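Quick log. Single chain, no ligands specified.
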Amino acid sequence: NPMQYSRGKNRVMPNSRRQHISVTFASIALLLVFWAFSVIHLDRFPTVHQDEPWILSPGYKLFSQGVYGSDLLAGYYGMERHYFEFMPLMSILQGLAARFFGLGVLQMRFVPVSLGALTLALTYAIARRLAGRIVGTLAMLLMILWQWTPASGPVLNSGVPLVDLSRIARYDILAAWLGLGALWFFVAARETRRRRYDFLSGLLAGLSGLAHLYGLFWIPALLVVTGVEGLRQVKDSYHEVTKAQSSQSISSCLPVLVVKSQAIPGVLMLTGAALPWSIWLGYIALNWNDFTGQFQIAQRDGRFQLSDGSFYFGNFLDEWHRYLPTGWHAATPTRAGFWLLAVGVPIALLWLIVRALRHSDRRAMWLAVPVAMLPILFALLVKLKSFNYLISVAPLFAVAIAWPIARWLRSPRRTVRLTAAGLLALVAAQGLSGVMQMQFVASRAPSSEAFFTELRRAVPPKARVLGLPQYWLGLTDREYRSFALPFYLSDPASNRDAISFEAALDRIAPQYMLIDPPVIGALTDQSTRRNRAVTAEFWSYMRRHQARLIRELREPGGTTVSVYRLDQ
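-> predicted structure:
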């Protein structure tokens, strides 16, 4: 058909080009909307979570003192010198940002918000490569308005994964962005036939694993796609060879074809992944005693019982808790976003598989394998059922859903078009309601900096303080220790040379204690013999050092923080 033109005031423009420009502007607008959602009241809401300063602390010490360690847990298997409890990449990135922008809630959270914006942009880039600009824009819309869970605190304040998880300074958003980068280079390698992209794909997958260990799931997922691609190429080459050569020649050619089409890209990806991990593993080897000591924390929690078959079975049965972190509520069936997740994603995956098999659509297969494999690997291998980890699969789900919806919106059947448009509008409306509710709550939240100012007035400079990690951000110039430290030192499951809880407190020798409801809950738990001993020893220590309450402060989350002064 001849190209159709739309006439403007002074020019003639092809409809397709005009559509491309409109879609591009819409994508830019969605990126700006996300940025506005995320930056407004970022320093006020949500309340600082204890993981945020905890993750920041080793990176901050690296760029301020040249040592990758955390003084929050000084004295526990060299944590003040070498930190192995979580992967290092996000902490290093946060420490670098603190070096240039200073310490503070806003500065700390600017990094994940930036990573969230980059994740959104990369989602568009991948969707555009696979299926076109319209699919990319729809995927972006889903990423910022697809409400997976009810809007509930303290973290899931809008119910939209990208919006909520970009507002807290954890490593999940970095693992998601690096994993998507690995997929982008993987697709680019297949489109351009440039093998260096396979290496870069593996490199980013390895770096994703250094943001969080589950980021390594990208490596088997991409290797499986590579294997399927190799088998397809062997099949095509086999048919070509049969036309000109004998069966004996064919048999001799097949191994070469397999190596050329399948093994080389896989080796390049593994080499790329091994590069950053060789550095990290070398660092572990040089500090092996500290690593094995700190690894007891993960062993205590049972996160790596890989030789036990019940580990995988139990993980799989409990996986629904990851997707329904607040449980099943009466309002759950009324959320379009829930049904899009529970029903829409499997349908979209089936649609991709059919396209890949029946229509030999390579791009559908490139997406279908990670969409299927990553949730399976999460279900089998990750015991901790944290919703936060799902930010790595959220972009994949968004692209998988956006692809068939974009086709249905262009369907010749009016009923199909209206159904797809209605579903999309309902999901967007409920998601926008959750985001606006979050912004309303954020606008009324008190400032964390005001609380930190009061805390600094209550605790003199250079004092030794024991409290939860979230309060360290306001007392970085004090000798601050986390309340987790005496528990680690006194727990036989975490410390091969465990001491009593009171002896652990004697070793720390705090001059001030910050006690809030979570600490009270841990210190008054009477469910086990050890817990009862901890309670008795804690109050014995407080009496022995004549602890006295000197100040009560209201932290931004609304709970009361009691400041105690102890005599030495």
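The longest strand covers residues 548-554.
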